Structure formats: structure tokens, C-alpha cells
Amino acid sequence: MSEMLERIIDQGVGRAPADVVLKGGRFFDLVTGELVASDIAICGDRIVGTYGDYQGREEIDITGRIVVPGFIDTHLHIESSLVTPHEFDRCVLPLGITTAICDPHEIANVLGTEGIQFFLDSAVETIMDIRVQLSSCVPATHLETAGADLPIERLVPFRHHPKVIGLAEFMNFPGVVHKDPVCLAKLDAFQGGHIDGHAPLLSGRDLNGYLATGIRTDHECTSAEEALEKIRKGMHILVREGSVSKDLNALMPIITERLSPYLALCTDDRNPLDIAEQGHLDHMIRTAIAAGVEPLAIYRAASISAARAFGLMDRGLVAPGWRADLVVIDSLENCKAEIVFSAGRRVTDALFATRKPVEPVGLDSVKAGEVKAADFAVPYAEGQTSVIGVLPGKIITEHRRFHLPAEGNQTGVDLGRDIIKVAVIERHGVNGNHANGFVQGFGLKKGAIASTVGHDSHNICVVGVNEEDMALAANRLGEIKGGFVVVEDGRVTGEIALPIAGLMSLERYERVRDILHHLRHAAFALGATLEEPFLQLAFLPLPVIPHLKISDRGLVDVDKFALIG
């Protein structure tokens, strides 16, 4: 190491040519907010010179361009991109996302520690720096059936892995407030380390009790008022803009220079089609600046503030001694990445080719039995029926109540009010549970959509207008070993196979993107009105997000944290 330090010093003071020098451009100083005309000298994996002229063994002319620190996605589930970590690396690193802090919560709920190990093995190989949070809630609640159980004893052995940061989003906030022993054991084991939060709409003294355990971050704020209370109580707010949960617009009032040290950016769940059409964190930056947010505030949130929130003290600034995660962009407003450096390495196809592959896991995880149309029947009952109310662009759902029509001795759908059926089928081979209900807001006029991506336990979730199409869609998922299926009038009109734990494709991200484009059109042909019908479907079984959800055990009143009926 001393020899390397000598090289770093010599190149920094200019006694020796730097390995790489970016010449002719400016960099965005996130301390002062200035655009500084300067060379940037790189030695190995770190920056060694700014505010001056440097000579380099390799010199890159970036005249007219701006250099910013690499972007950090502070909370995401790579599984929701529907591709492997290796393909996610290829997909978003060229957009300037040089660090991703992921929670392999989805694959952990299907495969347990095998899924976590798959992500850790992948993170060692990827070019971008993927950091892993250990999934804290597997299963997420007692109200659903998951494929695995991860008590604290199974998490602790991973704690000191070099890619592990800490404990992932602690979703069971009622369990924390009411001192559930399993929750307390996990929190106790990670005292003094990083504990990620997940506390939608939690406020007042219950929020105080939750934060008193050492939880420091939250990505579930959906209003500026909620975010401000949490910031005032010491939380670092992760502003989220995913494919379904879109909170950036609501939280723009808090993205200011004053509050930027307490903010970061995240996507949570974002698919390759949206990444291709809009972008990733770069899309958030462009959108915020176009809406009037100060560039200094949003770029801080995207890098230095994010790094400090998670203890990554080596990155986030363009300054000597800092990790050379750098993005050369056309302008602060457009934020179009033209050149990206990851730990001093220029990102190219050849660089991606140096990675070693990681063997896929969970290729036989869909173990549900065959279902029939009659399994989706709902007996008629007098009075109002609870209906899940979908809110476009949000994973929060409403608890609505309607008088639904009778079809003989069964409860029927009501297309006039956009109310159709929803079902969750246990697919891990544990108990064969099957629960039916109703949902409003998908817009379907015919057919069915089914998925093995169903947060958090990832059972089969299907919505549809008629039982025959629902059964066909659910059974087709078993044949393709998981994924998404669209059925119209007794035939499959679109599908994507996700055989890795029923969550991720074996294909390259470009192929997944193209299939998703066709799949989306197949859903729109049914009348679907949601921008992201598949991911919106995936959140219907999420019983840690208010207000009404459905699991394989039945309808869940999330406010009461209890099954209905």
C-alpha cells in the first residue's frame, strides 16, 4: 500500500503524470455550488488533483462538459428491475449510477439465505459498487405465507461481509412500536450499525418510539409534511421515484439547499422499460431542476448527502482523495451522461466483459398446484363488500366499500365502476392457500393479468374480469417458472418468463425491455388504464403499506394489522 500511496502523492502534487486526466471541462463543486474550470487527475481508483492543470498518461478532452460525482441509489430492490445484478449493472451504470444500495428482500422472501448469497456473490463481480442491506423482515408479516424465514441467527453470519452495510428497511413498524420480540432481537443485534427505516404515515409518539431504536432513514414519505416531521426528528429522507411509487413531485418543496444534507434519492422499484424511456436517478435530477429545484440541492442529494447517510465516506465529491466515481454530463439541467468512471475505470463494454458470471438460483420456485375457474368464485353476502382502491402512482391503497351485484349465489364484478376480481395463490409449496377479493382502479374490461412478483412474499397474484381467464393466467405462470402473463378471451396474449426465483429473467436487459413493451400493450388491450399495471399488481399483496391489501390468507386491514373476516 505504501508504494500506491507514494504514486498517489506524486501524481497529486504533479511530480509524475496522472494515470488519467480529464481536461478542458468544469466540475460542480458541491461544497460551494460553483462550476469550477479545472483539470481532474485520477490515480488508480481515486481522484488526486483538482483546481489546477495536470499532465496524464491518458488525457481525455471534455471541453464544454461538466463533471459531477457518481450518483447513489440509496434504496432499491434490483429484483424489481426484472434482471440479474449483472444486467442491472450494465443497464444503469452508463447513466451515472455508480453506487446502488440494495435490499435483496424479494429474493430472500422466496429463497432465504440462498438469495442473499446470490446477491453478495454478484456484488463482488459487478463494476458498479453494489452494497447490500440484510433483509430484516422475512417474512414481512404474520399475515402472509413466504417461502423462507430469516430469524436474526441467519442474518448475523453475513454482517461482516465487505459488501454489507447494515439492516435493511424495517417494515414491521407496528411490531417495533408494540415491542415484538422477533423485531427487537433483530434491532438489538444491529445497534451501532446502520438500520434502514420503512414507516409510511407513522407520526407523533409512535414515530418517536420507532426512531429511538436507532433507525435513521426512510423512503416512504408521500408528502412534504410527513417528510419534514421525520427530518426534524433526525431521519434522513430518501426521496423515491420508481415505476409505481412516484413521490418526487410531492417532496419537491423540501429539496432545498438548506435541507439537502438530510436528503438522498432512491428508486425502490424501477423496470428496464422505464429506465430505457426515462432514465434512472438522472431522470429524477432532470425532472427536479425543470420544476425549479436548485441544482445544488438535487445533486447533493444524489451523491454526497446519500454517501454520508450510509457511512460511505469515500465518495460523493469531486475532490482529491475521494473515490473516482465520476459522471461527465452535457449540462446540469439535462444530466445526460456521456462518460462514466467507476472507481477510476472508464465504463465500456470491454470493462463489463471482465466480470465473472454468477450461477442463477431458484429456477424451480413456483410450486403452486393447478387452479380452476371455480376457485375464483366469491360467495354472495348481503351488505357492502370491501374493495381495494388503487391509487395510480402510489403503493398506498384505499379501503373502499361497495354493494356489488349478485350473479346467482356469487358476487360479481362491476365493470361500470371499474371493480374486478383479485386473487392471491400461495406458490411456495407450503400450504396451498388461495384468497379472493375485489379491486378498483385497473380499468380492465376483459381478460386477466397474473404475476409471481407480489411483494413481499411473492405469491401468485392475479386480477381479472372472468374466472376462466384468471385460471389460465395463473396456471401459465407455473409452466414458464414465474413471470407476468396476460390472457384475453381464453388465450395468452403476452408473457415474460422470470425463472430466477420467479422474479428475474435470464435474458439481457435489452431483451427484457422489449418484451415488457409488448406486455404493456397486451395489458392496454384489456382496457388497463394504469401506467404500470404489472408493478401496480405486484403491490396489492403488500400488507405493510396502508390501507387495504390482500395476501394468500385473505384481505388485510393494514391499519389494524389484521385479516378481515
From TrEMBL:
Domain named Amidohydrolase-related: residues: 66-350
UniProt-listed Enzyme Commission number(s): 3.5.4.2
Record field: catalytic activity: adenine + H2O + H(+) = hypoxanthine + NH4(+)
CDD domains in the cross-refs: AdeC
UniProt superkingdom: Bacteria
Membrane-spanning segments: none
Residue span(s) of domain Adenine deaminase C-terminal: 395-561
The keyword Manganese is assigned to this record: yes
SUPFAM superfamilies: Composite domain of metallo-dependent hydrolases (SSF51338), Metallo-dependent hydrolases (SSF51556)
Cofactor(s) the record lists: Mn(2+)
GO MF term set: adenine deaminase activity
Keywords, comma-separated and alphabetical: Hydrolase, Manganese
Family according to the record: Belongs to the metallo-dependent hydrolases superfamily. Adenine deaminase family.
Name this protein carries in UniProt: Adenine deaminase
Name of the gene this protein is made from: ade
